[in-house]
Amino acid sequence: MMARVFIEEYGTRFPKGIEVLQDGLEDSLQYYVFDRFDFRKISSTNLLERLNEKIRRRTRVVGIFPGADSYLRLVASYLIEYAEDWATGKSYISPVLIEEQQSQLQMVA
């Protein structure tokens, strides 16, 4: 495994960095379990960044909110709309693939 080679090569020079790498290595490579998904989609934060940008754009239009509740209502209504889009087929990853993967993982567990 490439990680072991990397850890052996740099372990003495960067012990703290290698410790962080070892602690999070398994979690950071979990997306390889999902063999039928496009790795570029599930290993990236582009989707989350795009969602945050859309929320910022909608809240910028309003400018000043009368209170925190009005801000939360606007953001929540957008997130509900966004979730509905996902449920109706405009999803980033096919819901069918997600369901198949979940059933495979449940059989393994």
Number of strands: 0
Strand content: under 5%
Structural class per helix/strand content? mainly alpha
- Helical proportion? over 70%
Distance between the termini: 25 Å
Radius of gyration over all CA atoms, rounded: 20 Å
Secondary-structure element series? HHHHHH
Indicate the low-confidence ranges by residue numbers. Answer: none
- Mean pLDDT equals 82
Total helical elements: 6
Into how many domains do the coordinates divide? Answer: 2
Largest sheet: none
Tell me, briefly, the overall form.
flat
Plain-language structure description:
With 109 residues, the chain is mainly α. The protein folds into two domains: 1-33, no CATH class; 34-109, no CATH class. It is built from six helices and no strands. The chain has helices spanning 2-10, 15-28, 39-42, 46-62, 68-87, 95-108. The protein is flat, with a radius of gyration of 20 Å. The model has no long low-confidence stretch (mean pLDDT 82).
Question: Could you give a short description of this structure?
Answer:
This protein is mainly α and 109 residues long. The chain has 2 domains: 1-33, no CATH class; 34-109, no CATH class. It has helices at 2-10, 15-28, 39-42, 46-62, 68-87, 95-108.
Which terms summarize this structure?
single chain; mainly alpha; 72% helix; 109 residues; 2 domains
Strand and helix layout:
Blueprint: H1 2-10, H2 15-28, H3 39-42, H4 46-62, H5 68-87, H6 95-108
